Amino acid sequence: MERRSTPRRPSRRPPASPGALWRRLRHHRRSRPVLALALIAVALLGVRSEQNRADAARRAWSPTAAVWVSDRDLGAGHLLSEDDVELLTLPPAAVPSDAIIEPPWGRRLVVSIGRGEILREARLDTTGSSAVGSRVGPQRGAVSLTAPAPHLEPGDRVDLYRLLDGRVVASGAEVIAVVDGTPLVAVGRAELGAVVEAFTTGDVVPVLVS
Asked: CA-CA distance, 62 to 54, in Å (whole number)?
């Protein structure tokens, strides 16, 4: 009796690897244009992604604030005009909380500032006083010495000694003006009483300090 041979089942082909599939598509004539378009699309997506990241970084720094800065060195008591300041745009992180954003001309400085310095509310007079009055500043009072002191000039710092016993009645007082050779000195309010008392019992001697 003849044995019937059992027909062999076709063996399953192993799944193609990505590399083999890529090589097959790359060498297939009809698939080449499709692959080229796919590569171009991937490249465009990469460029677009980088642009989005750059735009996001730009937006993080894009909010800016316009502030007024000095166009030159200016002394205390100076009355600001349009020629003294310019408008500058800065990132918010570089702008002080009390920076001046409104036109500041017509206001006086209470302290000296340098060129390019941001104008701040604390450095401008808010009382509308005179050039000398604006130099007094907050929490101080100005007193005039009784005798000329040719060695002193505005901006100098002095300690005031009571002539009667040599006791210091004011430390670090600022000479804010010199009128006819006699200094006008800004003293802290806490020391004003002692200075006035020294005048009534004799005089004060200004000693220039650094």
From this structure: 12
Q: How far apart are CA 123 and CA 176, in angstroms?
A: 15
Number of residues in the chain? 210
| Contacting residues for 140 by C-beta, under 8 A, at least 6 apart | 174, 186, 187, 188, 189
| Residue in 153, 161, 139 with CA at minimum distance from that of residue 184 | 153
Backbone angles phi, psi at 195, to 5 degrees: -65, -45
Assign 131 to helix, strand or coil: helix
CB distance 183 to 177 below 8 Å? yes
pLDDT tens, residue by residue, 105-122: 888 888 889 999 999 988
The tokens for 57 are 């970084």
Secondary structure class of 34 (helix, strand, coil): helix
Evaluate whether 125 touches 168 at the Cβ level (below 8 Å).
no
Q: 158 with 173: CB under 8 angstroms?
A: yes
C-alpha to C-alpha distance for 102 and 194, rounded to whole angstroms: 41
Task: List, for residues 139-161, the tens digit of each pLDDT value.
Answer: 889 999 998 998 999 889 999 99
Phi, psi for residue 208 in degrees, rounded to 5? -70, 130
Quick one: which of 183, 176, 128 has its CA closest to 150? 183
| C-alpha 142: how far from chain center | 32
Among 194, 154, 151, 152, CA closest to 171: 194
Identify the helix (H) or strand (E) that includes residue 197.
helix 189-201
